[in-house]
Prior knowledge:
Blueprint: H1 9-17, E1 28-29, E2 32-33, E3 36-37, E4 39-40, E5 49-50, H2 53-67, H3 82-94, E6 101-104, H4 107-118, E7 127-131, H5 136-148, H6 153-156, E8 157-160, H7 171-181, E9 185-191, H8 203-212, E10 216-220, E11 239-242, E12 256-260, H9 262-265, H10 281-284, H11 311-323, H12 325-343, E13 351-353, E14 366-370, H13 374-383, E15 386-387, E16 389-391, E17 395-398, H14 407-420
Parallel strand pairs: 4-15, 7-8, 7-9, 9-10, 10-11
Antiparallel strand pairs: 1-5, 2-3, 6-12, 11-12, 13-14, 14-17, 16-17
The protein binds pyridoxal-5'-phosphate.
Amino acid sequence: MLPNFEASLDFAKQLDKQDPLAEFKNLFYFPQHNNQPAIYFCGNSLGLQPKSVSAAIETELNTWKDLAVGGYFNGPNPWLHYQEYLKPSLAKLVGAKEIEVSAMNALTVNLHLLMLSFYTPTKERFKIIMEAGAFPSDQYAVETLVKHFDLHPSDAIIEIAPLDGKKTLSTEQIIDAIDHAGNSLAMVLFGGINYYTGQFFDLKAITAAAHKVGAIAGFDLAHVTGNIPLSLHDWDVDFAAWCSYKYLNAGPGAVGGYYVHEKHAINANIPRLAGWWGNDEKERFKMEKGFIPKTNASGWNISTAQVFNMVGLKASLSIIDQANIHCLREKSIVLTAYLAFLLNQLDRIAFEIITPDKIEERGAQLSLYFKERAKEIHNKLIDNGVIVDFREPGVIRVAPAPLYCSFEDVYKFYEILKNNF
Ligand SMILES: Cc1ncc(COP(=O)(O)O)c(C=O)c1O
């Protein structure tokens, strides 16, 4: 239940007083504006730096300094097992078993690797469904994947676009497209949340529809992981990948995470591109011929754990665990609804919130489409110490991350818009 919102600073402060997560913002560094913390609504792009990260990096630097190669087996966090430390938290975030998740590389690389395992086109079944306007990297990944199999993108890729006059897709429309593709459909590769509109898709319904026609369901969860709790295992999702630099606050270009459903993870016969880190650990150091994958998601690991690229994630996940993803979501629902309520009071500026109004169809982010002056408004917000991002042709994405944003931040953002336009 949402409270009866009021457009006043006192009301916003009252909500902050009642917020059990309010203190978590003190665990992060904020960019400064006129010697004050900026209002940071850009966690959907790059999350803030947890204060604990530099000590965590220092720890690994010291292990390297003091133990050198011995750091793989000794020290506070033996590097040989570094991915293992991340699994309990990642599993909780996406609703998976620990054997279904791991971390390596970065998001697009992992999408490629997983799609190569799960996209096995035949003469009859070779199509891939994705949302029109998916993040460009996903578009490029799918385009080059089908070309890799000598298929033409216009034959093999079905893009679902919003119907006339709409900015977002309905679940019904997505399911109809899947049904219509039927036996020709090999895979659905959808964003969990579309980066531009902020629409959160019904992953359970999409997965069920894909399976009904015999297709694989895979998702790009860049904008979902750490934002909305998921139940990937129970929803029977086949595979998913995400980045760690948005709501997971692991730092720029930090290691990507991924999920493979247990039924596939335990199957050593699924084709994959391999390297020694995915090899059964008992066999790894025998240095023998013949790849024997681990029978869990780590069977897709390829290279030596990139420890310094995972330290930030480990530090940040421990904060997210303390906050609890379900409590974060509870706060996020109210925080974003308050933002929507305040924005709807602004009648002098011509804009449209293109993110769905329904709470279950969005996460922290609202995308505001300004018919005019979008860049000017964006610049003014930046000048006033509000960090949000701009996407052509006129969308300002506003994402109050519940871990470090307050109701007062949301109110001040509204006041700046109200007083300047
Ligand atoms: C939805 C989505 N997919 C893919 C990517 C690309 O991720 P990476 O550059 O880590 O491969 C991004 C980056 O922001 C994204 O938002």
